[in-house]
Amino acid sequence: MPYSGDDMPIQGQKAITNEEIVALLQDDMKGEHAAIIQYLQHAYKIGEDAGEVPSEIEGIARDEMRHFRWLGELVVEFGGDPTMLRDPIFLDGPSTLDLLALDVDAEQRAIDQYRDHIQAIDNHKVKTYLKRILMDEIFHQGKFKDFIGEMGGNPEREVKNEDTGPWNNDPNPPSQDLELNEQGDAVPADMKDEGRDDHPLVRMLNSRIRQEYETILIYLHQAFVSQNPEQRNSLISDKAVWHMTHMGTIGEAVAGMDAQPDMELDFNQKFLGKAPVEPHQFNRWAISREEELDKITGELLALSELHGKDADEDLVSDLKRIKGHGKFQVEQFKFDEEK
Ligand SMILES: [Fe+2]
Ligand SMILES: [Fe+2]
Ligand SMILES: [Fe+2]
Known about the structure:
The chain has helices at 18-46, 53-77, 96-120, 124-150, 200-225, 229-256, 279-306, 315-338, and strands spanning 89-92, 177-180, 186-188. By secondary structure, the protein is mainly α.
């Protein structure tokens, strides 16, 4: 049911409609979505030689996931569709300090956008959520600046890109993968990354990353729109969350092989149409998706045992774990089916 606002509109300002609120929140979702992926990519890229920084960045990405969920639920409450579109992201830059400067910039865009949206929206509940999120973004920006300072960089240095990156205020974002070149200009990301993508294992791991990612987005979208509270809860806290772990594990393995984890999808949301929305039908679809993923895990395991010496040494054991999860997840959806 749409929430009827209880904040009085500012004098002289026309009250904002639910459709307008939805549009602003969808815009925020695109920025959060992009930030999640950009930060994960940067954490993989920076790697373990930067001490605790990568795991702290992953922690920030998890905060953005919580924001994304709140926004998705608010969008549905106001009668809109929780968008799975994503603003452009920066995959790479000349140095770790450049990556962190891009993240400081992403937080600044978020801070500016949330301040604007808090001003524009006169609904008490939405304002309350956006103010809470804004508080987190200010905190995140401080963390990113601290990382730069700890590494001997200048936390106040600005990046020169003007209109690309997370929170780019575009209603139809191109969702492209970018990188910063030596001159500090935004250019399309070079996914070939020194030709390592030619490695058959990297190619297969990357295709698996995209399947995990697509599955996560389909599950989240269903969780937001499902009229079934049990399905809603289990898809988020019990299903999507595990696939995020898998995507992260495989992403780290690809980065460990000096290749670029590939998180580019068909963001025109066409993939959302693959799954039916009715809860039981969705469940049956999810069983077949889980079975498909599990079959691919078996193939990946065979291939990574074959290429074991080139791969991240933990990859085989990670894949065995994912294989175990896959079998369980098929059974778990079947138990849900019996309810
Ligand atoms: Fe956020
Ligand atoms: Fe943030
Ligand atoms: Fe998975």
